[in-house]
Write a structure and sequence with these properties.
The protein has ten helices and ten strands. The chain has 249 residues and is an alpha/beta fold.
């Protein structure tokens, strides 16, 4: 996984996109590897928190368009290659979304297109003031992908989602935070420390509680209140059993 840097320390899995010369543009192999890393981490008890970042001066500029162009020739083989690329991307986004561990996007510089969508899929976004977010698909004559059509209206409302997606403008981190697109914004010099502080807080919480809350919130995005209450009741029963067993009561 030369285009991904993987490290583990005190329960934190760090995944860094490592194509700085290409602003960490995603190739199909990177997308497949990312999906595999998140699937593996979901099963590893040692991993408590995941941090996703980009090497160099950007988080991720989206899909590698040169690779996509090579997959865009006529014919069945090209059609199959494009489908395989998009299928891998779909599985990768779902692996992040469904991972029971808290996932933090550490964003410096550009988060564009699919890179922006990938950051928004994470549970937390900590961005430096020099970060910029853009759903720039329309500027390339492309439709939204990597979950952007599902994420944007839920984060900022339908009308603002239309502005972001149909105009394709970049917005600075401060504005992204003000409209609810992202969470915390800090000075570039404090980005790593802010992420570490967030990791510390999450590591100090019950792993079962965090995974249950993430599952509840994910389910609540597309269910009615009655179903959400049922999901909560079942999750809370499991957490209460663990709470009592721990002797904290």
């Amino acid at each position: 996984m030369s285009d991904l840097e993987i490290s583990r320390d005190r329960g934190v899995l760090r995944v860094q996109l490592n194509r700085p010369a290409k602003l960490n543009a995603l190739t199909e192999s990177m997308i497949r590897d990312l999906g595999a890393v998140f699937h593996e981490s979901a099963r590893r008890q040692e991993d408590k928190v995941i941090v996703l970042s980009g090497a160099g001066r950007g988080f991720c500029s989206g899909a590698d368009l040169l690779e996509l162009e090579r997959l865009s020739g006529p014919g069945t083989a090209a059609d199959n290659a494009r489908v395989q690329f998009l299928d891998s991307a779909t599985k990768m986004i779902l692996a992040i979304h469904e991972c029971p561990k808290p996932v933090i996007a550490q964003v410096a510089g550009v988060a564009a297109g699919g890179g922006c969508s990938m950051a928004l899929t994470c549970d937390f976004i900590v961005a430096s003031t020099d970060a910029r977010f853009g759903q720039i698909f329309v500027n390339k004559g492309l439709a939204l992908d990597l979950g952007a059509s599902w994420l944007l209206p839920r984060l900022v409302g339908l009308h603002r989602a239309r502005e972001l997606a149909m105009l394709g403008d970049f917005i600075p981190a401060a504005e992204a935070a003000s409209i609810g697109l992202i969470g915390q914004v800090v000075a570039p010099s404090g980005l790593s420390r802010a992420v570490e502080t967030l990791c510390d807080r999450l590591l100090s919480s019950s792993e079962l509680a965090l995974s249950s809350i993430k599952a509840e919130l994910n389910a609540g995005l597309h269910t009615d209140l009655s179903f959400a209450l049922d999901v909560e009741a079942r999750a809370q029963a499991v957490c209460l059993e663990a709470y009592v067993a721990s002797g904290r009561s």
